Amino acid sequence: MTEKKARTPRSRPARQWPSMADVAALAGVSSQTVSRVSNNRTNVDAATREKVLAAMKTLGYRPNTAARALVTGRFGAIGVISFDVGAHGNARTLGAVADAAREAGFSINFMGVRAQTEAAVQEAFQHLMLQSVDGIVLIESQMLDTTSLHLPPSMPVVVADGDAGHAYANVDFDQALGAHSAVTHLLGLGHRTVWHLAGPRDSFAARRRTESWRTTLEAAGAPLPEVLHGDWSAESGYRVGQELAARPEVTAVFTANDQMALGLMRALHEAGRRVPQDVSVTGFDDMSEAAFFQPPLTTVRQDFDLVGRHCVRLLLDQIEGRSDGPRRMAVEPALVVRGSTASPARG
Amino acid sequence: MTEKKARTPRSRPARQWPSMADVAALAGVSSQTVSRVSNNRTNVDAATREKVLAAMKTLGYRPNTAARALVTGRFGAIGVISFDVGAHGNARTLGAVADAAREAGFSINFMGVRAQTEAAVQEAFQHLMLQSVDGIVLIESQMLDTTSLHLPPSMPVVVADGDAGHAYANVDFDQALGAHSAVTHLLGLGHRTVWHLAGPRDSFAARRRTESWRTTLEAAGAPLPEVLHGDWSAESGYRVGQELAARPEVTAVFTANDQMALGLMRALHEAGRRVPQDVSVTGFDDMSEAAFFQPPLTTVRQDFDLVGRHCVRLLLDQIEGRSDGPRRMAVEPALVVRGSTASPARG
DNA sequence: GGCACAGGTGTTTACGCAAACATCATTCGG
DNA sequence: CCGAATGATGTTTGCGTAAACACCTGTGCC
């Protein structure tokens, strides 16, 4: 391993990848010409290009991204920070961002954040900030606080499904519209009012859904019931559902996501209250399972793929210096009516 | 990318990050000393180290991973290739691998693969192979064909939830045990035989579950019904469920995952066949919603976190040259009995 | 007091690539 | 037919880091 010659080769791990110099030697050109071919520059003779490409193939050459990043200052990578990917919406958004990024020639540097604490988000940022990404997408970032994250102003950031009040570019569903359509649907069926099983208090998406629920009820002159909070999980929906099931005046519930709606319906069923005959339930997300719940769930469909594409587009705008594009984008959700909602029983 | 236009778009961005040299200048030491501090070497005087750390903090210094990777040949990154992250199991595994990797100081380079074709997997590999990762984890990789993937032998690879027959290290659930326990549970309840709603034909995990179902039935001397295939989705479970519901002899179904079981139960319900009184149903995965299905699903729980940790461990063994560790690991699943299974009605 | 030795630090070099610049051969307008 | 513009290629340089090596100082030992 360690040879003791005059100017010895280094005792590094043996070179397993050919470099531009190797390709250049085989093709009988300079390494710069190899670089030009590698980067698809136009000013290379067709015959020369062929020679180089052949040599690349022979040696199995692949450009070294580290060296390229070092010299260009660009990494071809987008960082994605997300909370629990076990949550349906987060996973879908991640997948959509990844797809869109790949189409744009970027890879995804993923950081999962377990705890919803600011320190955890901070740490994730710090990791990604080691200059190894060109920009960052933050999914479900209710803890985001602009002032405490020491981001260099030059680091492009897009927030998906988060607070629209901060300084970063933002892509989100039109939560207000989604909540409004669900609540209006229920009121239109003849319910006197609509209860609300909300998401966690520190989620902006959840808060916006709650606000829209409130204003819709107020506009309709319906009484405003107390808000009950879950944590997005089916289990929390079940717990809250047990409380709601105990109140006979509850005939309609607008739930902030599908998973909680599932738990809610389970609790109602166990308490002997039928959905939709006794209680109507709506969800939010339209996860792929929602159509097969018992009963099939009326819910608000979100187009996660579109969100992913928008995120990447806004991020690339920043990365490539096109800051004239829109900084905030909203994706319109659509109400999907299924079997979990009906007119209240005449009682 | 014909960027024939102006020669300007490639102008190098202004230096926005301080380098070692900047820190060294401020601290009044050589850049090599900064390097030593940065890498936590011991042979640095305590006072000097303090000076350097202070300078780093003042300048907001962060080591440049590209430069470090260039010189060390290591990237501190693990590539993860996964199919649809909308599928519960894949998302959970991804999250677990990401967590385990972060604990080990590695970041995750994620590549989603839309189409389950060999070409798509190939392309994902090629992307990751641009030397930007130290190893690769492949999730749900039924299409994996060792001979056609041109991996350098030195690229560490671990396959999760895939074929145990190939040359790569492997972490998987003990599918046979899981299927066996579910089928045995159903037979033990008094069912004459157990039908099987299987996963896609090209999934090794699905095939192993099917095989184990078959051998368990044979060992019990139970008749062997025809196998019906879904594609993991609730929708496919619903379609197959309509067929099964039409056969009165079906009293118990072992389903290859929870989502299909949901669709199946929906179809049974619509056909007027009650679960579990008329038909018992088991799932596989124990997704967090399964306990709130109607009825709550008896299923086989998989510990995805453990799989993720094992994957990272096996991968690090290879990356760091410790190839003496185990190359294959199995994680034991556990049967969770809930309300979707019961003894057949005396008919 | 000399001498080996170790710990602390600085100097040089190379990693692989692409930008900037240099060189040479063409082509074309007048 | 000359001089300038254009195109194809080679040469030099530097990105930020860590390894290898050189060089100091002080210490302990005889």
UniProtKB/TrEMBL annotation, chains A, B:
Instruction: Please provide, alphabetically and separated by semicolons, the GO molecular function terms listed in this UniProt record.
Output: DNA-binding transcription factor activity; transcription cis-regulatory region binding
Could you tell me the keywords of this UniProt record?
DNA-binding, Transcription, Transcription regulation
Q: Which stretches make up the HTH lacI-type domain? A: 18-72
Give the SUPFAM superfamilies listed for this entry: lambda repressor-like DNA-binding domains (SSF47413), Periplasmic binding protein-like I (SSF53822)
The record's section on InterPro entries has: HTH_LacI, LacI/GalR-like_sensor, Lambda_DNA-bd_dom_sf, Peripla_BP_I
The UniProt entry, under Gene3D superfamilies, shows:
3.40.50.2300, lambda repressor-like DNA-binding domains
CDD domains the record matches: HTH_LacI, PBP1_LacI
TM region positions: none
What name has this protein been given in UniProt? LacI family transcriptional regulator
Query: What is the scientific name of the source organism?
Result: Streptomyces finlayi
